[in-house]
Amino acid sequence: MTEETNITEKENEKPKVEVHAGGSNPVYGIGLIGAWVFYFQRATTPQERVQAFFKGFAWPALLVYELFKFLEKK
User: Fold this and answer.
1) Residue 13 within a domain
2) Residue range of the domain that includes 55
C-alpha cells in the first residue's frame, strides 16, 4: 500500500522548471560601458551628459531593431 501512495504522490507533484540565463549579460554590460565611454567623451554640456547616460541604455534596442530591418530586406 505504501508503493501505491508513493506513486500517487509522484503523479501529483509539479515538475520543477529551472531557467538559466544566457551568457549575454556580460556582453551587454561591456557594450553598455563602451557606449557610455563613447557618448560621454563627446558630451560637453550637462544636458548632453544626461543624454549620454540614457543613450547608453538605449543603443542595444536600436541596434537590434535596425538589424531586424536589415535582415527583413534579404
Assistant:
1) no
2) 44-74
